[in-house]
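hey so i finaly got around to running the thing on CoA transferase from Lampropedia puyangensis. pasting the sequence first so u can double check i didnt mess up the copy paste, my clipboard has been acting weird all day
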Amino acid sequence: MSQTIPNPSALAGIRVLDVSRILGGPFCGQVLGDHGADVLKIEPPQGDDTRTWGPPFRDAVASYYYGLNRNKRIQHLDFATEAGREKLLQLLEQADVLIENFKTGTMEKWGIGYAQLQQRFPRLIWCRVSGFGSDGPLGAQPGYDAAVQALSGLMSINGEADGEPLRVGLPVVDMVTGLNAVIGVLVALQARQRTGQGQLVEAALYDSGLSLLHPHAANWFMSGKTPQRTGNAHPNIYPYDTVDTATGPVFLAIGNDRQFATFCCLVGLPDLPEDARFSSNQGRSIHRQALKALLQSHLASSNARELADALMAAGVPAAPVLDVAQALNHAHTQHREMVVRIGDYQGLGAPVKLSQTPASYRYAPLTQGGQFLPSETDVYSTDV
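ok and heres what it spat out for the 3d tokens, dont ask me to read them lol
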């Protein structure tokens, strides 16, 4: 039996119309939904493209889709038809936020673009996720995560020092763009509290890709030297790198001289900080090749997990390099509630924890829904 209970989350009462697809926009919608917003996702008749991005599949829908569309109720509309556009306008009468990532000019062609609807819906926050923005040398061009990784310089600094540029092994630009879209929506909601007016929020993949270039951009601004690939090592800090052990690599994230001295005592190299080459981070960074060779030789017979545990207990950041399955099954992952289960659905939990208004998980992906929930009650069904 379905039961309704108050939604305790921070965005309860905020109504979001998510007409986006693929990754950045849907990810934004899912984050807002996790924190209590009532999210209606509108998909074209054939569904979001990511339904086909597999294997693996469940009931002919790919895992990729499941990972981005929790806490939404979905319906299908064709905006190329008058009936589809009319339904959209009806929903916008109740919406606080619209998320879209259509190619620039598409919604305008249908007569439902931001400029065309701004006066009709003055309180609406229109969140546009785009590749490059709507103007400029690359304006209105389609954007894809990997292409923006290449164009923004991210690939040039990712990979081994003597290897080829590499794409980061996850859609980092798309995901950060989605998070930037969330930030933009929340900022616009706060501004609306003061002005009573909505506004256009735009999060572009290109801008987001460039924003990830720290500290490489800061280094280039100051030195004029083009940053290079450094493998797993940090360009400014050492040892901040992987070191091989008998049971696999361990990552050392040593950020200051005190941590380095503690590390050296713990692993049996107490005199190493007295070596002029390694007495400061500047020296360790300059002489990193010699230091890494020394550490590799000294730690070759160590156990990665035991070494990392001992270092962490002593206040030195370190970790064994786990695979995805090991990370998701880690006891601390469970403790932090980073795996969510709704029926037979599993997904990653919300990484932001609020003490008074925590995230909530109400709808598994593919939950059907045609209208927003009644605003005066702000309730949700626990029968999911």
